Amino acid sequence: MEFRHATHDDAALILRFWTESGASIGVTDTVEQIQRVATNPAAVFLVAVLSGEIVGTLLGTYDGWRGNMYRLVVRPDHRRQGIGRELVRRVERVFADWGVRRITVLVEADRPWAAEFWTAIGYPRDDHIVRHLGIL
């Protein structure tokens, strides 16, 4: 298993991986947006690669206030093998180097297994916050 930073050239593969893995695809999930974030110095975008194929992704960003993690996706037939946990730990190490003190994770409400994962690795649910969303 190789863990590495996503590159500009990975964008189409990542988008296809997300689609094939059952991830929700939204307005920011385009090849162009993925290319942009893969080269953003305020982001760490990791991929897990096995036998030349992407089997996991995690995007971490830092806005100067808090770290945020998005798009933790592991291919369904590779789940429960520690890939997601390792991606999280690697992003946490980058965040620590950046001085991040607080991390927010967004989890879709219709994915209880994802919420259970985050709780199990030390990210309890915060019931004090409700997300409001605007799209430009």
Report on this model:
With 136 residues, the protein is of the alpha+beta class. It has a single domain (2-120), classed as Aminopeptidase, CATH 3.40.630.30. Helix content is 32%, strand content 24%. A hairpin with a 2-residue loop joins strand 2 (43-50) and strand 3.
Largest sheet: 5 strands, mixed
Strand order of the largest sheet: 1-2-3-4-5
CATH topology: Aminopeptidase
Q: How many beta-strand runs?
A: 5
As a whole number of angstroms, the C-alpha radius of gyration is 14 Å
Structural class: alpha+beta
Q: Give the termini distance in whole angstroms.
A: 38 Å
- Name of the CATH first level: Alpha Beta
Which regions have little confidence, pLDDT < 50, spanning 5+ residues?
none
Give the helices and strands, then pairings.
Elements: E1 2-5, H1 11-20, H2 31-38, E2 43-50, E3 53-62, E4 67-74, H3 83-98, E5 103-105, H4 112-120
Parallel strand pairs: 4-5
Antiparallel strand pairs: 1-2, 2-3, 3-4
Helix pairs in contact: 1-2
Short account of what is shown:
The protein is an alpha+beta fold.
Which features would summarize this protein structure in a list?
single chain, alpha+beta, globular, Aminopeptidase, 5-stranded mixed sheet, 136 residues
